[in-house]
């Protein structure tokens, strides 16, 4: 009964709010991206996986299905419009917060987030993939079936461009695939280790770093950076390697090698590439001599 009452309330609010849409809402835009952008401003306990799964649904439906995944300790709801006050007792038991969150339009001050929001990993992956594919912001609709028009003479006909294959939103993993992925392989932003500011600054400046200001925990290992668009995990080395003599360089490289090899195995076990970032060509050459299979890059940004 409570769920039925809540669903009825959401449909009522949706109908009321969409009777006079805001001009921006009337503009053609991809509702899936609009939902992801709206959800990116909220904290989620599951990294946004529920949001990505339900992003094609209307926002009120998404809000109802993913409400339990919201970080309720960091969100405050304010019924400024007064519409939620008409909720039945059964619906109110489920929370005025759901009523406020599910409103199709965004009302300033109704949803207040405490602290800084780090975009959920799953949401950021979906949005980055969308931008990488260069998809249009509009939904693609099938062309209506009509009788073919008489063909013009070949001299007057303009060649039709071939479809680029980039006008569709990239596929999102379905629930069975998500269940099959090992939980420890889902990247989780975690605070930098303290005590080495220059090292952390170098990792934060890495081009296309998806989580500057954070390390990333994958497969129980804390990596220095993650580039989602290429699915690459990084270990950044800022040692002044070239200032040591040759014997010390070789010793240092041998000592660090087993850990680098372990990180590579952990990353690849979860489907990621692994790159070691170093500050000098000498450091790169020393590592490659010991293990040619390690991908080593000289960082010219730090």
Automatic annotation (TrEMBL):
InterPro entries: DUF6310
Keywords, alphabetical: Signal
Signal sequence interval, chain numbering: 1-19
Comp. bias (Basic and acidic residues): 176-185
Chain ranges of the DUF6310 domain: 178-302
Region feature Disordered, mapped onto this chain: 134-197
Pfam families attached to this UniProt entry: DUF6310
Name the record gives this protein: DUF6310 domain-containing protein
